[in-house]
Amino acid sequence: MKRDIYEKLLEWKSSKERKPLIVRGVRQVGKTYILQEFGRKEYNNAAYFNFEEDPALDDFFQQKLDPGPIIANLSLYLDREIRPGNDLIIFDEIQASNNALNALKYFSEQAAEYHIAAAGSLIGITLSRPRSFPVGKVNFLDMYPLTFLEFLDALGKSGLRRLIETKNEFSAFPQPFHDELVNLLGKYFFVGGLPEPVKLFVETGSLNDVRSNQKDIIDSYLLDFSKHAITSDIPKLTMIWDSIPTQLAKENKRFVFSAIRKSARAREYEGALQWLEKAGLIYKSHQVTIPKKPLKGYMNRSSFKVFVFDVGILGAMVKLAPQLLMEKDRLFTEFKGAFVENYVAQQLRSEKQIDLYYWTSERKKAELDFLCEFGSQIYPLEAKAGINPKSKSLNSYDKQFSPSILSRTTLLNLRHDGRILNYPLYAITLFPKLYADSSLK
Questions:
Q1: 251 and 103 both lie in a single domain
Q2: What is the pLDDT, as a whole number, of residue 365?
Q3: b/e per residue 204-216 (b: at least 16 CB within 10 A)
Q4: What is the pTM of this model?
Q5: Is the distance from CB of 216 to CB of 236 less than 8 angstroms?
């Protein structure tokens, strides 16, 4: 399965500043697959070691962390020589061996000629407690579920992806392509971007099989709670996770601890919420009332929304029926537009890798879904379900702050309404870079 992260792996391989690489991401996001594919295509051999499946590997890292003896032992273990530069060494589930994680520091300092790529779950890496984490001695790549553009590639619709990516002016996409892309977006809302459900959908077309697989994935995440979290936090993690659909179903979607249970207080659950965020299972979007740079300096830490990392997993959590794919109006407006907002949050994080913020007026009479900080500018963005072009919150923001441009993403085609630029939801990747080529600039 083609993944955009592959290009970054190529850049890592050829970089003069290359250090041992750690690819981070939630479980089942495709870390192992992409590293094995990279090793197979770009090296003579891939030397693969999985510390979770084979705990005995940790013994090679129990003594002095000298790269020479370690490589000699690993070569003997594989029964073939591991050659620097020619072979890719893959340490999978590296969080299962603190010593192996720590050894990356010494490979960086003493044996940089060896190409090492490690994979680990976000929460496993975060909670790992080696003697000395190799700070500054490793490169990191974060891996996310497939974006909508990658989903198009997986479906064999790369031509439509190129149509979007090569757009250089604010003019409508041809109507037949627009209609097809809206239809494919509906499928993405159901399938999401985790590789296994996508693969199942491509091979079988069965939405029931997809949903069954997503439920298994959710169960595996719940098992991770008991595996990695402290005992007292496990029920809290489950209650927070189960409450997210309810939180998103509210009109303002702001996360409220009392929605977990009536007597819940922030200080009791903040640790568990932070755990889910570090695990990559949720994204937090913080409230801002004053849109100044840096947004992080003006955010309200106690007021935020919580999104699920994958819109398909969110659909499985709320038991979204496959039949809704036949009713596009309901699909995009169901759940008070939560799928649309969650989808946009997911694409912004995975494609743009930016922090998420939203704006509310001081009296909370207006709320704008996203404030996005790119370079020297802050771009307001409204996300709307369906084709309703009314933008009261966006207009309210405009009256108060007079930004250079206003942006909205809906099911409408690419177009501009006065100073408002409308990006189709399927082409959110064009936000805000297409503005640079717009006649409105």
A1: no
A2: 82
A3: eeebeebbebbee
A4: 0.93
A5: no
